[in-house]
Amino acid sequence: MGLGRHPTTRDRRRCAGRTASCRVAARVMAQGTEDRRARVDALFAAALEREAGERPAFLGEACGEDGALRAEVEELLRLADLPFPPVDGGAPALDEIRREALDAVLSAAEPEAEGTRVGPYRLGREIGRGGMGVVHLAERADGQFEQRVAVKLVRRGMATDEIEGRFLRERQILARLAHPGIARLLDGGVTEDGRAYFAMEYVEGEPVDRYCDRKRLSVRERVELLARVGDAVQFAHRNLVVHRDLKPGNILVTPDGQVRLLDFGIAALLEEGREGPLTRAGAGPMTPDYASPEQLRGEPVTTASDVYQLGLLLHVLLAGVRPGPDARPSSSAGGAPDLAALSAARRTTPRGLVRELRGDLDTIVAMALRPEPERRYATAQQLVDDLGRHLSGRPVLARGDSVAYRARRFARRHRAGLTAAVLFLLAATAYVVTVTGQAREIARERDRVRTEAAKVGQVRDFLVGLFAGADPSTPEAQTITARELLERGDARVRAELEGQPEVQAELLDVIGTLHASLGSYELAVERLRTALALRKVAHGERSAPYADTLFHLADVLREKGSYDQAEPLFREALDLRRALHGEEDPAVARVMDNLGLTYAEMGDYARAEPMIRQALAILRRHEGEESPVALGTLGNLALTLKWKGDFAAAEPLLREALSLTRRIRGERHLDTAWAMERLGVFLGQRGDPRGAEPLMVEALRMAEGLLGDSHPDVALMTNNLAKLYAVSGRPGEAEPLFRRALALNRKLFGPRHQRVAINLGNLGDVVCGLGRHAEAVPLLAESLAIRREQLGPDHPETALALHYLGRVHLALGEAERAWAIYREAVRVARAAWDADHPFRADVLAGAGEAALSAGRRAEAARLAAEALSIRERALPPGHESTRKAADLLARASARPAR
Fold first, then answer.
1. Domains, the chain, ranges and CATH?
2. Is the dihedral of CA 397, 399, 405, 409 positive or negative?
3. Which of 197, 505, 517, 572 fits a 20 to 30 Å CA distance from 375?
4. Residues 6+ apart with CB under 8 A from 78
5. CA separation (Å) from 213 to 227, 345, 346, 383, 584?
6. Are 802 and 824 in contact (CB under 8 A)?
């Protein structure tokens, strides 16, 4: 079921016309598992679409050896064909029972009332319905901004704890499926009556088959459109999501010709399946007419099932019908009774249509539709690549190595330059040379793809086996954690894949980055170093895979705060990618972006800014200024300028990033939340808490809705909001938020992580502000110790930690102790920040207070004057911090009372 505009009442009309079948359907829906009910219902609906004589063969294939399943469907079909007795026909009791059953079924299918409030949305008309959910057009109702979305609700009676738990786990994955060809997940939550819901981008469009026919697209244009669908499917597969229900109604095309896939991953999210998204049994929600053979048999579903459905879609778009026993679209089209109309809808003649379909397209479709999953294209990308080869006149891999075939493709591709005379004169030489070259080309490509396919298969099998241990029906799986799953993966990689360095490296690379996402940086570094060594053995030190893992290792070291180790690895990865791809490649720009961010985090803004600017220019030239990667780089540039203290340059970039992200990602996307957060933090530091607070509160609320309340991003945003409250004179509101962020980061990252140090420093500072000075000292001392350990003694964050600790000793009346701490803080601050940086002014002002309390008036006056000068240049006129610096200078310059 899609989240777009297409009919929704067909099943209800069918049920109204077959009351007896509804009675049995109601009985079936009250028994057994939800998967079994959904499968019976789906097969029953598909069988009703067929003539009575076709049903036995269909059920034989669909049900396989499951005799009980076939018997249930056949009983429904038998009862569906019974006559409906009249009210006065001598069977009033039976008639009443049937009417009550019909009323029960139809009342359960009634839509939500228009105008119902669901979270921040007001429901409009129903636009879709499935076995477990109903979809409504909806509008934003909280007055924050105008927005039309598609809201999907779990139907009444289906909101079990298991379904809602799986919903929350999978929503985070869906939130990151950011691709132009996939309808975006915007928001999610729970209704007042406890049912899960989520909001998605509302797509104005029509099903892909209707669009193609209405626009009279040619065969070539239809192939190009299907290839774009395949790109989106492959993107999802890379993110470990299988669609499982690719059909025309779930693929809409907008008026401007853009493809949008709907319900991506939603069937897996809401069904009662037991395995992970790559291996769920096929009995869940599906459309039998577009289901793969393994889905109909109830076997595990993999990416190969989506490849089969792409093949079906391609056949329908080309030939206008689903394939019969002969899977070739040329045969289906050639035997169509309306061949003339079919060919006219593709802007060609009957003979031209059959000729265009015969050959490569027949072969490509046939390979995608092979009954055995392992004999299809190994990935959706391989199918898309073969379509590209066909469109460009190159040999397709599905055709094999026939010399005559390759020669024909070569001649057709170069027809314009090969006149009859040239062909005659060069037949004995150029023909042989050309064919030999083509043979070598396709043999190399074939071997590469076969090797890649074998590796993909091994990786897939490994993941299937690993996640099989997380079957929620087993007692162990109720408590298994992501860390435990990764530990199992570590052990299995070493035990089962020894002697297969390519596959080991691929999996260790993934496992390493996952360890980093959980805060296990030491394990992440260890796994990535092992993967790098394996890449060196399998591919060499000058290869793209080696450069990729090198890049990942460097980035984990950066996240860990080991900048001195990360920086040389980034530079090595940058040199490699430049040699492999050229200076202008986006892959090169990504390394430059992260290396520049590393320089910024090291406080080396002179190297950071130009490098990030160059990366941004490359990405905008090649991927467009609205690409997600370019948006991220724009945000990194703005952060660098802010850290550098160039607030005037940072602010317009932060506002531009928010504007672009809202337009591209929509209002309810994690990238939008972060763009709001960065601007909010900036405004808070600039002394505009009123402008900052609504942005930061909404960003935190959005992140909690998309990620749950135990995610590292949520912890960071919670800390930032608490900091805003603290500097705005609201320490009572800040303290519980700081404590929440501290507890969460300790749980996520362990006790010695840089984020924990930040939380400790902020909490200690606010506790000090509340007058609990003795309580603040151990918090601030621990924060300083972690920063020195993780970042080194001369890092800007170390200077801030010294500043906080010196301030609390000053509040305790320990002036000499405070002055000793501040002397070190001033030394670090002068080296870490430019002369006009506001943080440098904060440290100088704090040191001035300590010097004054210690009786060093001249030193205090000098420090206060420097702090005042910076704040007058960096902050808006009349800022509170500027006033305090002026007051300090006046006190330090005044003659002491005699």
1. 10-108 (no CATH), 117-201 (3.30.200.20), 206-402 (1.10.510.10), 751-893 (1.25.40.10)
2. negative
3. 505
4. none
5. 17, 6, 8, 23, 40
6. yes
Would you state the structure tokens that stand for residue 185, as one six-digit string? 């997940």
Sign of CA dihedral 618, 622, 628, 629: negative
Two tokens, residue 93:
């009791």
Contacts of residue 133, defined as CB under 8 A and 6 or more positions apart, other chains included, come to 1, 152, 153, 154, 155, 158, 266, 270
pLDDT at residue 378, rounded to an integer: 87
Strand pairing category for 185-190 and 206-207: unpaired
Q: pTM here?
A: 0.47
**Nearest Cα to Cα of residue 1 among 132, 104, 96:** 132
- Residue with the two structure tokens 């929503």: 171
Residues marked active site are found at 245
Question: Among 342, 346, 324, which residue's Cα sits nearest to residue 333?
Answer: 342
Retrieve residue 242's tokens. 């299988």
Sign of CA dihedral 310, 311, 312, 317: positive
Which amino acid appears at position 160 of this protein? T
Tokens representing 639 are 């952060």
The partner residues of 182 in beta bridges, in order of sequence, read 261
Beta bridge partners of 136: 126, 151
Distance in angstroms (rounded) separating the CA atoms of residues 92 and 892: 102
Task: Please name the residues in contact with 707: beta carbons below 8 A apart, sequence gap of 6 or more.
Answer: 172, 175, 670, 713, 714
Ramachandran assignment for 202, one of left (phi > 0), alpha (psi -120 to 50 degrees), beta (any other): beta
Which range, 84-93, 519-528, 841-850, has the best average confidence (pLDDT)? 841-850
Describe the crossing of helices 670-685 and 647-665 by its angle, rounded to 10 degrees: 160
